[in-house]
Amino acid sequence: MNPADPNATRHRQKRARILLAVIGILLIAALTAFIFANNVSDWNAPPEAKMLTNPLPQDPGLIAAGKAVYQEKCANCHGDSGNGKGNDSWKYWAKPADFTDASAMNKMTDGELFWKITAGRKPMPSFETKLSEDERWMLVDYIRTFSRPGAPADLK
C-alpha cells in the first residue's frame, strides 16, 4: 500500500475506529463484570449480629452525640438529611444507603446497622477502629431518627 494513497488512509482510519470501538466495549464489559462481582444489593449481616441489641438508652443527649459523629464521618456520603445524596455520593459506584426509607430501615435490626457500621464494605470503610463501640451504637440511634415520622427537627 502506498502511504499517499487516499484509499489506504481511509482503510487505516476505519481500522483505528474499529479498534477504539472494541476497546470501549471491553472496558464497559470489564466494569459491568466488576459491579456484578461486587454485588451491591446483597450485604447481609450474620444472624448473631442481627440479634445484637443496643446497650445504650434512648437518650436525647446520646442521640445528639450520635449526630455529631454522623456529621463528621457519614454526612459527606449519606447526606445531612440521611437520604444517601451527600456531597461525595456521586464518586462511588455503590450508592450510599437512604436512611429516610422507613420501609428499608424497619427491616433492619439495630444489631444489623451496628454490624454494617463496624464491618463496612467498599466503598464504605470499616469504623471498627475509627469509632468506639459506644459511638457506633450512638450512630445507630441517630440514623434511626431519619426514618421516624415526627422526629424532632433538631436531631435531623
Topology readout:
Elements: H1 6-37, H2 47-50, H3 60-73, H4 75-78, H5 102-107, H6 110-119, H7 133-145
Helix pairs in contact: 3-7, 6-7
What does this structure look like?
The chain folds into 2 domains: 1-37; 47-155, Cytochrome c-like domain (Cytochrome Bc1 Complex, Chain D, domain 2, Orthogonal Bundle), CATH 1.10.760. It is mainly alpha-helical and 156 residues long. The chain is built from 7 helices and no strands. It is elongated. Helix content is 53%, strand content 0%.
Number of strands: 0
- The shape, in one word, is elongated
Helix content: 40-55%
Biggest β-sheet strands, sense, barrel: none
Number of domains: 2
CATH-derived topology of the largest domain: Cytochrome Bc1 Complex, Chain D, domain 2
Task: Give average pLDDT, whole number.
Answer: 87
CATH superfamily of the largest domain: Cytochrome c-like domain
Order of helices and strands: HHHHHHH
* C-alpha-based Rg, rounded: 24 Å
Relative strand content: under 5%
What is the SS-derived class? mainly alpha
CATH architecture field of the largest domain: Orthogonal Bundle
Structure described in brief:
The chain has helices spanning 6-37, 47-50, 60-73, 75-78, 102-107, 110-119, 133-145. It has 156 residues and is an all-alpha fold.
Highlighted features:
156 residues, mainly alpha, Cytochrome Bc1 Complex, Chain D, domain 2, 2 domains, disordered C terminus
